[in-house]
Amino acid sequence: MQTITPVPQIKLAEPVNDAIIQVQSLSKRFGKGEPTVRDLSFEVQKGEIFCLLGPSGSGKSTIMRMLNGVYRPSEGKVQVLGVEPHNFKRRTRALMGYMPQQFVLFPELSTIENVNFVASVYGVSWAGRRNKAREMLEFVDLWDARNRLASQLSGGMQRRLELAATLVHRPQLIFVDEPTAGIDPILRAKFWEHFKSLKNEGRTLFVTTQYVTEADYCDKVAIINQGRLLALGGPEAIRQEAMGGEIINLTLEEVSREAVRLLRQMPQVRRVQGSSTENLRLTVEDAGEALPEIINALQQNNIEIQSIEPYRPDFEEVFVQLMERDNANKETAENQKVHVR
């Protein structure tokens, strides 16, 4: 069994501007069972896409609902736009938009009627609704379907209608809960184009997802498992932390003991792993600096290189590594409890 060495959790850098969301030591327990969310702390800065990533049942929707004032925390503190969510007033709500997981609009109303209704709830004037409804439906490519009943829309079109309704009052802070769940990859990419456009307008987005590859679209990522924070930071910082550094894939004519010994002695090389009789994976501090040093050292020792190149693991591999580490740490903790007894 592979040994996984615990690595300290990434922390966010000191905020460069005022945090629009502040979460400190947040926990949530329903009844007398185990906490759904455990001692969670993070900040979301204005104008960024913040991603809450975790498997199904990890506590993402519970966290989202606490940020929106649906649930009160059992412990800890939450501030959104400088206000505790259970104290939100109408003017604060008007700055926020919330897109839930499930379709909650009216199936018997048309596409444009649904958007107009939500606009009226948020106090958009009758005169302004027409232009705003059209703008939002064009934004999500639903203007041509404006007169179709919501019940007649496909699942993907209903998700786009939800997004249009969420945005019609031009909120500055936008919560989207599992926005791409159950939709095809093409539409998923379209959603992220929309999110990037909103970010470019200076809006702040808080997104939950279980699709690990979507983490690379975000400015900051919080990875959670069973309500606990595993990693927090930018996608590249989390990638390096999870993998122990940057990765280089090396193919030799033959992997010899001499080659492995030479590589392990190099200061830049943190780890050498063999995947076959010809291939090695090297973990280094900086791939750009390490590559020429590795090439030079191997050539000086007459070790023939077939290929050598930096390797950027996708976020799915990063996610699996973090989950395995978490499971190993929990297993170790359980074993220690047994020994203490």
Short description:
The protein has 341 residues and is an alpha/beta fold. It has helices spanning 60-67, 90-93, 111-121, 126-139, 155-167, 185-200, 235-243, 257-265, 287-300, 315-340, and strands at 19-28, 37-45, 49-53, 75-80, 96-99, 173-177, 204-209, 220-225, 228-233, 246-252, 269-274, 279-284, 305-311.
Q: What does this protein look like?
A:
The chain is α/β, with parallel strands linked by helices. The chain has a domain at 242-311: Alpha-Beta Plaits (2-Layer Sandwich). It contains ten helices and 13 strands. The protein has helices at residues 60-67, 90-93, 111-121, 126-139, 155-167, 185-200, 235-243, 257-265, 287-300, 315-340, and strands spanning 19-28, 37-45, 49-53, 75-80, 96-99, 173-177, 204-209, 220-225, 228-233, 246-252, 269-274, 279-284, 305-311. It has a six-stranded mixed sheet, with helices on both faces. Strands 11-12-10-13 form a four-stranded antiparallel sheet. Helix 6 (185-200) links the parallel strand 6 and strand 7 (204-209). Helix 3 packs parallel to helix 5. It starts with 18 loop residues before the first strand and ends with a helix. 35% of the residues are buried. Mean pLDDT is 89; it is low at 1-16.
